[in-house]
Write a structure and sequence with these properties.
By secondary structure, this protein is of the alpha/beta class. It is built from 15 helices and 18 strands. The longest helix has 19 residues. This is Aldehyde dehydrogenase family protein.
Length: 467
Amino acid sequence: MPTTEPDRVPGRRGARFAVVDPATGETFDKAPDQQPDELDAVVDRSHRAWHDWRADPAARTTALRGAADAVETAGDELARLLTREQGKPLTESYAEIARTAARLRYFTDLAPRTRRITDGRPVHSEVHWRPLGPVAAIVPWNFPLQLAAAKFAPALAAGNTVVLKPSPFTPLATRLLGSVLATALPEDVLTVVTGREPLGTRLASHPRIRHVTFTGSVPTGRAVARAAGASLARVTLELGGNDAAVLLDDIDVDRIADRLFWAAFRNCGQVCMAVKRVYAPARLHAEVVEALAQRAKSVAVGPGLDPDTRLGPVNNAPQLTRVEQITEQALADGARAAAGGQRLDGPGYFFAPTILTDVPPDSPVVTEEQFGPVLPVLPYRSLDEAIDAANGTGFGLGGSVWGTDLDRAEAVADRLECGTAWINHHAELSLAQPFAGIKNSGVGVAGGPWGLYGNLRPFVVHRPREE
């Protein structure tokens, strides 16, 4: 549970670090700053717990269903704490907790299938599936609970144990979630550790960790992969995106404007698969800019605990600085803010919802992932030009095409270089589908049966045919 004990000496056992409410910019609690050398005992306990956890699938099913029930029972407490440390509106926190429980139930009901190989030899060959061992789940601050569940639910259902490390910006709701899950799971099956670097690096490189699953930035993902390589652990990396929305020339701007706006601005734009660039036909460009700008100017921005809020603050000071800098650079490059363009006055990490036009295509706000409430809208003359631009970054997580002719839109979507393409919507995922990026957007697959098998290894048994 969260605590308000004062800081102790940094770098020693018992040290704590501040957790800031992004709506005020002030510290409201502290979390344990666990040290890298404390991980050995945690991972050792996780390894010991693995032997019993993997051995009884029926007991796992019962425990995981109980865990999902426990999450829902604690929903009010979890949601308020999540909003307090992350900043998102309370309604979005409730949705995140519901998704957390749903993931547990979904993966609990999946089971790997034994497969018989028939290849003409005088033996029976069967492929069975075995869990990997302790899994390290390293989670970012934008969806702390939902992304944690996306990692621990398939890992636990497959028979692995999990050591879960949240971002230092959002440790408290994850610690509370760990306490809630502990009421249903056996001891040491899931352990939450909190702390600042090099805790994450030590966890990723620990010799008893057999799978490292990470969501975060490309540079940190590369560092995690290097650390995991020391013990040849499996890695699953989801490293963000710079998703493009390509609007076709037959769109009805008024009809799609709300969906398009929220595809970009949900969770204050802090979504890896949010729309981060819009390409509009030149003749419709001004209309698209105006429709999005009207929504940006009218949306209610404020603390997530305020029931009228639709858009909360940026989560942390470094990210707010990043959003400010990338916007200022675009404006200096010649862009114009049709809405927003600056930090809001007052306490907290609030940035005005921003729609940019006249943006040079090589501006960092276009070529990089801004991860905040800023959206550039760029015109195009030909569809080939738009597709080339959409594919022209190092990212490849998602993309979308918007138009009235669905067959034509699907043909365009098929040309996007990304892991998931949507038509007339964006960033909507089923628990049953695979989620993966290409290029710098990641390695491995999460979601659906693919996510379950990513936490298993094949084990082949050969036996002679009956004579």
